[in-house]
Design goal:
The chain is 77% helix and 0% strand. It is elongated, with a radius of gyration of 32 Å.
Protein backbone atom coordinates (compact mmCIF):
# COMPACT_ATOMS: atom_id res chain seq x y z
CA UNK A 1 0.00 0.00 0.00
CA UNK A 2 2.80 2.42 0.83
CA UNK A 3 4.47 1.66 -2.54
CA UNK A 4 1.26 2.43 -4.43
CA UNK A 5 0.92 5.69 -2.53
CA UNK A 6 4.40 6.71 -3.55
CA UNK A 7 3.76 5.90 -7.26
CA UNK A 8 0.55 7.97 -7.56
CA UNK A 9 2.18 11.38 -7.51
CA UNK A 10 4.61 10.21 -10.19
CA UNK A 11 1.71 9.25 -12.44
CA UNK A 12 0.07 12.57 -11.92
CA UNK A 13 3.33 14.37 -12.58
CA UNK A 14 3.83 12.43 -15.78
CA UNK A 15 0.26 13.14 -16.90
CA UNK A 16 0.63 16.80 -16.10
CA UNK A 17 3.91 16.90 -18.02
CA UNK A 18 2.30 15.31 -21.04
CA UNK A 19 -0.56 17.77 -20.80
CA UNK A 20 1.85 20.70 -20.71
CA UNK A 21 3.77 19.42 -23.74
CA UNK A 22 0.55 18.83 -25.66
CA UNK A 23 -0.68 22.31 -24.73
CA UNK A 24 2.55 23.89 -25.98
CA UNK A 25 2.45 21.94 -29.23
CA UNK A 26 -1.19 22.82 -29.69
CA UNK A 27 -0.45 26.49 -29.07
CA UNK A 28 2.34 26.45 -31.64
CA UNK A 29 0.06 24.64 -34.06
CA UNK A 30 -2.70 27.19 -33.63
CA UNK A 31 -0.21 30.02 -34.04
CA UNK A 32 1.19 28.46 -37.22
CA UNK A 33 -2.31 27.86 -38.55
CA UNK A 34 -3.29 31.44 -37.81
CA UNK A 35 -0.15 32.72 -39.54
CA UNK A 36 -0.90 30.58 -42.60
CA UNK A 37 -4.49 31.78 -42.53
CA UNK A 38 -3.33 35.39 -42.41
CA UNK A 39 -0.97 34.88 -45.34
CA UNK A 40 -3.69 33.13 -47.34
CA UNK A 41 -6.08 35.97 -46.60
CA UNK A 42 -3.48 38.53 -47.71
CA UNK A 43 -2.81 36.56 -50.87
CA UNK A 44 -6.50 36.44 -51.76
CA UNK A 45 -6.79 40.20 -51.25
CA UNK A 46 -3.72 40.79 -53.42
CA UNK A 47 -5.12 38.52 -56.13
CA UNK A 48 -8.44 40.37 -56.13
CA UNK A 49 -6.71 43.72 -56.51
CA UNK A 50 -4.40 42.33 -59.19
CA UNK A 51 -7.42 41.13 -61.10
CA UNK A 52 -9.05 44.56 -60.98
CA UNK A 53 -5.83 46.19 -62.21
CA UNK A 54 -5.32 43.79 -65.10
CA UNK A 55 -8.96 43.93 -66.24
CA UNK A 56 -8.60 47.72 -66.53
CA UNK A 57 -5.20 47.33 -68.21
CA UNK A 58 -6.68 44.89 -70.76
CA UNK A 59 -9.21 47.57 -71.75
CA UNK A 60 -6.45 50.15 -72.13
CA UNK A 61 -4.43 47.79 -74.31
CA UNK A 62 -7.45 47.22 -76.54
CA UNK A 63 -7.95 50.97 -76.92
CA UNK A 64 -4.25 51.48 -77.72
CA UNK A 65 -4.34 48.66 -80.25
CA UNK A 66 -7.26 50.32 -82.05
CA UNK A 67 -5.33 53.60 -82.12
CA UNK A 68 -2.14 52.09 -83.53
CA UNK A 69 -4.13 50.12 -86.12
CA UNK A 70 -5.79 53.35 -87.23
CA UNK A 71 -2.35 54.94 -87.67
CA UNK A 72 -1.17 51.92 -89.67
CA UNK A 73 -4.20 51.90 -91.98
CA UNK A 74 -4.13 55.69 -92.52
CA UNK A 75 -0.41 55.51 -93.29
CA UNK A 76 -1.05 52.90 -95.96
CA UNK A 77 -3.74 55.07 -97.55
CA UNK A 78 -1.42 58.09 -97.59
CA UNK A 79 1.45 56.08 -99.07
CA UNK A 80 -0.82 55.05 -101.90
CA UNK A 81 -1.16 58.74 -102.80
CA UNK A 82 2.56 59.66 -102.80
CA UNK A 83 4.85 59.59 -105.81
CA UNK A 84 6.58 61.74 -108.44
CA UNK A 85 3.20 63.09 -109.54
CA UNK A 86 0.26 64.12 -107.37
CA UNK A 87 -3.03 62.18 -107.53
CA UNK A 88 -5.49 63.44 -110.13
CA UNK A 89 -8.10 64.10 -107.49
CA UNK A 90 -7.42 64.96 -103.85
CA UNK A 91 -10.24 65.01 -101.32
CA UNK A 92 -8.81 67.52 -98.90
CA UNK A 93 -11.17 66.62 -96.06
CA UNK A 94 -10.16 62.96 -96.37
CA UNK A 95 -6.49 63.86 -96.34
CA UNK A 96 -7.06 66.13 -93.34
CA UNK A 97 -8.52 63.18 -91.44
CA UNK A 98 -5.73 60.81 -92.48
CA UNK A 99 -3.05 63.26 -91.39
CA UNK A 100 -4.77 63.82 -88.06
CA UNK A 101 -4.70 60.06 -87.49
CA UNK A 102 -0.91 60.17 -87.78
CA UNK A 103 -0.52 63.07 -85.36
CA UNK A 104 -0.20 62.08 -81.73
CA UNK A 105 -0.94 58.44 -81.16
CA UNK A 106 -1.93 56.29 -78.19
CA UNK A 107 0.25 55.71 -75.17
CA UNK A 108 -0.36 52.80 -72.82
CA UNK A 109 -0.44 53.54 -69.11
CA UNK A 110 -1.15 50.21 -67.40
CA UNK A 111 -2.70 50.02 -63.94
CA UNK A 112 0.17 48.76 -61.80
CA UNK A 113 -0.72 49.95 -58.29
CA UNK A 114 -1.04 46.48 -56.76
CA UNK A 115 1.96 44.98 -58.53
CA UNK A 116 4.10 48.00 -57.67
CA UNK A 117 3.04 47.76 -54.01
CA UNK A 118 3.89 44.05 -53.84
CA UNK A 119 7.28 44.53 -55.49
CA UNK A 120 8.10 47.71 -53.59
CA UNK A 121 7.37 46.09 -50.23
CA UNK A 122 9.22 42.88 -51.13
CA UNK A 123 6.01 40.87 -50.72
CA UNK A 124 5.65 39.48 -54.21
CA UNK A 125 6.34 36.04 -52.74
CA UNK A 126 2.95 36.27 -51.02
CA UNK A 127 1.71 35.00 -54.40
CA UNK A 128 2.10 31.27 -53.89
CA UNK A 129 1.90 30.36 -57.60
CA UNK A 130 5.40 30.41 -59.08
CA UNK A 131 3.84 30.36 -62.55
CA UNK A 132 1.88 33.53 -61.83
CA UNK A 133 4.96 35.25 -60.39
CA UNK A 134 6.88 34.31 -63.54
CA UNK A 135 4.18 35.73 -65.82
CA UNK A 136 4.06 38.95 -63.78
CA UNK A 137 7.81 39.36 -64.31
CA UNK A 138 7.41 38.71 -68.05
CA UNK A 139 4.59 41.27 -68.12
CA UNK A 140 6.81 43.99 -66.64
CA UNK A 141 9.46 43.32 -69.30
CA UNK A 142 6.89 43.32 -72.11
CA UNK A 143 5.44 46.64 -70.96
CA UNK A 144 8.90 48.20 -70.84
CA UNK A 145 9.46 47.18 -74.48
CA UNK A 146 6.04 48.49 -75.56
CA UNK A 147 6.53 51.84 -73.85
CA UNK A 148 9.98 52.22 -75.40
CA UNK A 149 8.50 51.49 -78.85
CA UNK A 150 5.83 54.14 -78.29
CA UNK A 151 8.46 56.62 -77.07
CA UNK A 152 10.54 56.10 -80.21
CA UNK A 153 7.45 56.60 -82.38
CA UNK A 154 6.68 59.87 -80.65
CA UNK A 155 10.26 61.12 -81.14
CA UNK A 156 10.04 60.28 -84.85
CA UNK A 157 6.73 62.12 -85.13
CA UNK A 158 7.92 65.20 -83.26
CA UNK A 159 11.30 65.51 -84.98
CA UNK A 160 10.55 64.45 -88.59
CA UNK A 161 6.88 64.06 -89.42
CA UNK A 162 5.35 67.19 -87.86
CA UNK A 163 8.01 69.71 -89.00
CA UNK A 164 7.58 68.42 -92.54
CA UNK A 165 3.81 68.67 -92.86
CA UNK A 166 3.71 72.09 -91.17
CA UNK A 167 5.47 73.44 -94.28
CA UNK A 168 2.53 72.38 -96.47
CA UNK A 169 -0.55 72.31 -94.26
CA UNK A 170 -2.01 75.07 -92.04
CA UNK A 171 -2.45 73.69 -88.54
CA UNK A 172 -5.70 75.61 -88.03
CA UNK A 173 -7.32 73.68 -90.85
CA UNK A 174 -6.35 70.30 -89.41
CA UNK A 175 -7.48 71.35 -85.95
CA UNK A 176 -10.79 72.56 -87.38
CA UNK A 177 -11.42 69.18 -88.98
CA UNK A 178 -10.72 67.35 -85.70
CA UNK A 179 -12.74 69.80 -83.61
CA UNK A 180 -15.73 69.61 -85.95
CA UNK A 181 -15.71 65.80 -85.87
CA UNK A 182 -15.69 65.85 -82.05
CA UNK A 183 -17.73 68.92 -81.06
CA UNK A 184 -19.58 70.02 -84.19
CA UNK A 185 -19.53 73.67 -85.25
CA UNK A 186 -17.23 75.59 -82.86
CA UNK A 187 -17.27 78.87 -84.81
CA UNK A 188 -13.70 78.51 -86.10
CA UNK A 189 -13.18 79.32 -89.78
CA UNK A 190 -10.61 77.50 -91.97
CA UNK A 191 -7.19 79.03 -92.44
CA UNK A 192 -6.82 81.37 -95.42
CA UNK A 193 -3.55 79.63 -96.19
CA UNK A 194 -4.03 76.86 -98.75
CA UNK A 195 -3.33 73.18 -98.18
CA UNK A 196 -0.61 72.28 -100.67
CA UNK A 197 -1.33 68.57 -100.80
CA UNK A 198 -0.27 68.27 -104.43
CA UNK A 199 3.23 69.40 -103.42
CA UNK A 200 3.24 67.36 -100.20
CA UNK A 201 2.43 64.08 -101.96
CA UNK A 202 5.35 64.54 -104.36
CA UNK A 203 7.78 65.18 -101.50
CA UNK A 204 10.03 62.15 -101.02
CA UNK A 205 10.68 63.05 -97.37
CA UNK A 206 6.94 62.96 -96.72
CA UNK A 207 6.68 59.47 -98.14
CA UNK A 208 9.61 58.29 -96.02
CA UNK A 209 8.20 59.92 -92.91
CA UNK A 210 4.77 58.34 -93.42
CA UNK A 211 6.44 54.97 -93.90
CA UNK A 212 8.24 55.51 -90.60
CA UNK A 213 4.90 56.15 -88.91
CA UNK A 214 3.51 52.99 -90.49
CA UNK A 215 6.44 50.89 -89.29
CA UNK A 216 6.27 52.41 -85.81
CA UNK A 217 2.59 51.53 -85.50
CA UNK A 218 3.27 48.01 -86.78
CA UNK A 219 6.00 47.54 -84.18
CA UNK A 220 3.68 48.83 -81.47
CA UNK A 221 0.94 46.43 -82.59
CA UNK A 222 3.38 43.52 -82.31
CA UNK A 223 4.38 44.58 -78.80
CA UNK A 224 0.72 45.08 -77.88
CA UNK A 225 -0.12 41.58 -79.07
CA UNK A 226 2.49 40.14 -76.70
CA UNK A 227 1.22 42.28 -73.81
CA UNK A 228 -2.40 41.29 -74.46
CA UNK A 229 -1.52 37.59 -74.47
CA UNK A 230 0.30 38.00 -71.15
CA UNK A 231 -2.62 39.86 -69.60
CA UNK A 232 -5.03 37.12 -70.68
CA UNK A 233 -2.75 34.47 -69.18
CA UNK A 234 -2.27 36.41 -65.94
CA UNK A 235 -6.02 36.86 -65.52
CA UNK A 236 -6.54 33.14 -66.16
CA UNK A 237 -3.95 32.25 -63.51
CA UNK A 238 -5.40 34.74 -61.01
CA UNK A 239 -8.89 33.31 -61.52
CA UNK A 240 -7.51 29.80 -61.03
CA UNK A 241 -5.83 30.77 -57.75
CA UNK A 242 -8.96 32.52 -56.49
CA UNK A 243 -11.14 29.56 -57.40
CA UNK A 244 -8.79 27.22 -55.50
CA UNK A 245 -8.73 29.39 -52.38
CA UNK A 246 -10.62 28.14 -49.34
CA UNK A 247 -11.35 31.69 -48.20
Amino acid sequence: MAENARQKPRGRIFAEGVLIVVSILLAFGIEAWWADYGESRDEVEALKYLREDFVETAQRLTSASEGHRRIFESSVRLLNMTGPTAPDQINKLTVDSLLMDLIGGPRVFPVTATLDALMGSGRLDIISSSELRRELAAWSAAMAELQETEREARVQMDQRFLPLIWDYVPVVTLDLTALTETYGDVGLTPSRFSRRYDALFTERRFENSVEERMNSSRNALERLSVAQELVAKILSLVDRELAGSAL
